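Two folds, back to back.
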Amino acid sequence: MPIELVVFDMAGTTVKDENKVTGTFSAALKAYGYSVPDDVINPLMGYKKIVAITKMLQQYEPDASKITAELINNIHEEFVKLMIGYYQQAPFLEALPNAEETLIALRAAGVKVGINTGFSKDIAETIVERLNWRQKGVFDYLIGSDEVAEGRPAPDMIKVLMALAGVSDPTNVAKVGDTEVDVREGQSAGCRFVIGVTTGAFKRSELEPYRPTHIIDDIAEVLTIIR
């Protein structure tokens, strides 16, 4: 059976990141007294942001009693505020090379295109609006990690997108992303192709241990893989 749905990540996969997500995470944590190095933050890109914050606090807050739901939510709210402000105002916000063209070509070929992200839906919508992706016809469906019970690496977001697309068999689905949890999400969903891209947070050597079906340097290669 042909691939009916391709699910793409956002930052680092289809949207140029410039390491601003990491920098914004760092700023949100610092606002609450936590100094976390970029090399600790980067591997957590792709996770549901509430989960990523919790993981960082567990590592950098020695008093576990201070890691409360209120603290986690406050840091997340700071992150969302800073991230939306950045995406609203950044003069250079742009899609990664060949991203828009690839997604549009898939849709023209009758393949549904879903976008999922570790961001909350409000951040994702800000990006989509700035890039005019609805007007350009870049995707069919968009989901944020706050719209499901479990974010990556759980398959919840992919399952929602499959339901929206009317796809029942995960072997007719491909997942494309730039992080460990993107790969594990695709694997946990049972996707036929789980494609890692080297345009974001993880290098080829960092993706290889997670055994995606493919690792590519140019998102346009997705067209060749699924055909």
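---
second:
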Amino acid sequence: MPDANNAFVKFSDIQKTYDGETLVVKNLNLDIARGEFLTLLGPSGSGKTTTLMMLAGFEMPTQGSILLGGRSIDNMPPHKRDIGMVFQNYALFPHMTVEENLAFPLKVRRLGRADVESKIKRALDMVQLGAHGKRRPSQLSGGQQQRVALARALVFDPKLVLMDEPLGALDKQLREQMQLEIKHIHQDLGVTLGYVTHDQSEALTMSDRIAVFNDGAIQQLAAPSELYERPQNAFVAQFIGENNRLEGKVVAMNGAMCEVEVPGAGNVRATAVNVEGVGRSAVLSLRPERVKLSPAPGSLPNVFGAQIAEVIYLGDHVRARISVCDQNDFVIKLPNSDGVVQLEPGAAITIGWKTEDCRAFDAS
């Protein structure tokens, strides 16, 4: 993990508006460490792509300052920022060969012929396209074109590489393969990488840290495991991974724990993450894989009767939609072990979960 104190990119009090009224990025303060793979993750319109475009120089902040390597780039044009860019639509020159596409950013920088040739060879070998240099983009598959775009972003040894939804146009299998390839290239080169996606599984797979955006602001900035296991608000819990959501009112507080009265369930014990206090509305978050089937009597603090509505067999695990706590869309995931596949719709079951696996957030 890169040193988080070694800020290579620094956003300070950044705001961005296009119409002078609505802020699409609000009071952004964000550091990216040298050599870090940081992903900006969020739904459409959350401000993540605008943030990336301001760093690249294609958009200007309305307020605030951006530093790169300790130097302000606020008035620096994009081509002087020494940043490699990879876009979703590849943005390759169709009339040029692969080698000519890669040579373009090198010739702009006035490198000699020998340097150009050696850098092109190294970049093509890096993305396993050494035999495709004479082809044009139209003669390549979508995955190969994306590799060329990646090679072009890396060929001039940039300080920073930015990627905006680069795998969105690829099919699922190729997208997952490219995720690992990009991650391995990052690890091998040690380049600083900023990545934008709305795909949370992609972000979890690739990143050192993830900044979760919503409504123009970062909701949480943390390592993938921290985001998944310890979300800090209801939006992050809902956006990262699958999540069961229960709503109720806080009736008791006891240090780091609380009790929330949930309609149809009575009191549910939970970890108090950011609840405001007794009498306030709260949202409970519980991962489907944390729910236990048929817990032993007295083994868990939260135990409820439920009814199976639907069972989906998924090979290594079984996914069941159940009715519980006045909810008809509660989901549990169970390992495919003896007896689990015998679950039938309509059957009555007992489920339970630990206090620490259920997180309570303020509902406001």
